[in-house]
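[Discussion] Sanity-checking designs against the backbone

I'm trying to build intuition for which residues belong where. Below is a structure token string of 177 positions. I'd appreciate it if someone posts a full sequence so I can compare it with mine line by line.
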């Protein structure tokens, strides 16, 4: 089965990992057909193991290799297609759309956080098929009230986020193989 692991906090705030090195750790962990997409910690691979087993195995291997508490979220190709196809926001050049990958139920926690904070102009959030989507004006991501939760240490094992365009790039690679 083909998967993509989404690592949290890669190449931000001093946590630097070379994707070639990350791919090597994945290969040594026993998964196959390993490749990365972008430098933000999106690792495509194949394995017959169950997601729960892969998550533990890969987090432990990565944490040991990089001497850093690694958190990752593994999604199948079908799930990634759902992230891409479920986007409720029309593409606009002046807006970013982010999708959140995380533990079951995290979309409700994120929506509560979003609803409780002040909003910038054009900022919106929606849940579609248990997936949280957030739209914001380019340049305002970290300035918005909700954007500040992206780095909350209390949430580091709960979710990670990606620009919606990342899913399109991942799907192109998955569909090539």
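Best answer:
Here's mine. Compare freely.
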């Amino acid at each position: 089965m083909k998967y993509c692991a989404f690592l949290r906090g890669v190449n931000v705030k001093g946590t630097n990992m070379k994707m070639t090195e990350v791919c090597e750790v994945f290969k040594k962990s026993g998964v196959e057909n390993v490749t990365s997409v972008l430098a933000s910690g999106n690792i495509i691979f194949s394995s017959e193991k169950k997601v729960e087993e892969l998550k533990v195995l890969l987090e432990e291997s990565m944490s040991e290799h990089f001497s850093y508490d690694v958190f990752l979220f593994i999604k199948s190709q079908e799930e990634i297609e759902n992230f891409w196809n479920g986007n409720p926001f029309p593409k606009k050049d002046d807006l970013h759309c982010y999708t959140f990958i995380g533990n079951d139920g995290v979309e409700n926690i994120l929506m509560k956080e979003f609803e409780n904070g002040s909003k910038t102009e054009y900022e919106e959030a929606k849940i579609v098929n248990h997936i949280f989507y957030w739209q914001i004006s380019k340049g305002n991501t970290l300035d918005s009230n909700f954007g500040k939760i992206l780095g909350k240490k209390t949430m580091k094992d709960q979710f990670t986020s990606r620009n919606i365009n990342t899913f399109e790039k991942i799907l192109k690679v998955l569909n090539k193989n």
